[in-house]
Amino acid sequence: MTTRPGYSCALAPTADVVDKARLAERLGYRRLWLFDSPALHGDVWIALARIASATDRIGLATGVAVPGLRHPMVTASAIGSVHELAPDRLVVAIGTGYTARLSLGKKPVTWAGTVRYIRQVRALLNGEVVEIDGRPCQMMHLPGFGPSRPMDVPLWVAASGPKGFTAARELDVSGVVTTGIPAEGDRGWTECALLRFGTVLRSGEDHTSPRVIEAAGPGYASIVHAVWQNSNDDAVDALPGGRQWRAAIEAERPEGQRHLVVHQGHLSELTERDRAVVTAAGPAITQAGWTGDDASIAVRFDQAGAARVTEVVYVPAGPDIPGELEAFARAAASPPNRA
């Protein structure tokens, strides 16, 4: 028998994130994941600490922490601080850092580097001596200056793609975060979180509805950003409105600085240039993520459960995040209509 996954949410660390976290807790969200992109929004660890102090039950998670932004000791110390505030509520997922690194003009960290980083952080949390940058390091906190070691905080891997799942198996982690339904050979984890953007459609809405454009648009725009980042100009120009979008980017910043604007609003809100390319995309904006009515969202939950996903992490966007959270929580509990 298929078990329907739980529902969680992922948010940017904004000034009002505590209010959103309290709402998510009231709505029954299992966990609140926070982005780690310092060039785009506030600090993930400060936000997690604020939420830990302001909530009682909801799980906390990094979605996802990025090697190269912080020394392993800094990450381990931050984990300890949040763990003290919210024991047994924290999960730390770590990945290569796509948007967080690209917005700094850097490539994602290699998988070899990511595996090494996770091992170093794990060893520090265990109280072990570990070599970092050629020198031995150890958490040296005396009683009262930090939690005792070992710290039983789960470290997960953001494992989208074959190399990511290989790394997760190598590290023997208990959980993975992915952006797509895992293939048959990549299932079987104790916990598997699936990131999904989109919006729950109201009666009469479609891709032309202003609310849908603002709520589902940032997810589609992130695909445009990725095409620009990973492909040549022809690939971007082949997208509806892509040529005009690229021209706007090139007019705004010189070559070498365009990464400073492309990823603005990532998975959160639309810039004017992104709104134009989203509007040009037409029905494609409702096909890129989980956009649909309550019953269709419920069907997707069951399909994810059949692939052994244990947790769907919804990424709400647009100007009404509370409304998006309420609608998705309702849809997550709805019976599927397969007629």
Q: How would you characterize this protein structure?
A:
The chain folds into 2 domains: 6-200 and 292-332, Alpha-Beta Barrel (TIM Barrel); 210-286. It is built from 13 helices and 10 strands. It has helices at 17-26, 44-54, 72-85, 99-102, 111-125, 162-171, 210-230, 233-237, 242-252, 259-262, 272-281, 294-306, 321-332, and strands spanning 6-11, 31-34, 59-65, 90-94, 130-132, 135-137, 155-158, 175-178, 191-197, 311-315. It has an 8-stranded parallel β-barrel, surrounded by 7 helices. The protein has a two-stranded antiparallel sheet with strand order 5-6. Helix 6 (162-171) links the parallel strand 7 and strand 8 (175-178). The model has no long low-confidence stretch (mean pLDDT 96).
State the main characteristics.
13 helices; 339 residues; EC 1.-.-.-; 10 strands; TIM Barrel; Luciferase-like_dom; alpha/beta
Annotate the secondary structure layout.
Elements: E1 6-11, H1 17-26, E2 31-34, H2 44-54, E3 59-65, H3 72-85, E4 90-94, H4 99-102, H5 111-125, E5 130-132, E6 135-137, E7 155-158, H6 162-171, E8 175-178, E9 191-197, H7 210-230, H8 233-237, H9 242-252, H10 259-262, H11 272-281, H12 294-306, E10 311-315, H13 321-332
Parallel strand pairs: 1-2, 1-10, 2-3, 3-4, 4-7, 7-8, 8-9, 9-10
Antiparallel strand pairs: 5-6
Helix pairs in contact: 1-2, 2-3, 3-5, 5-6, 7-11, 9-11, 12-13
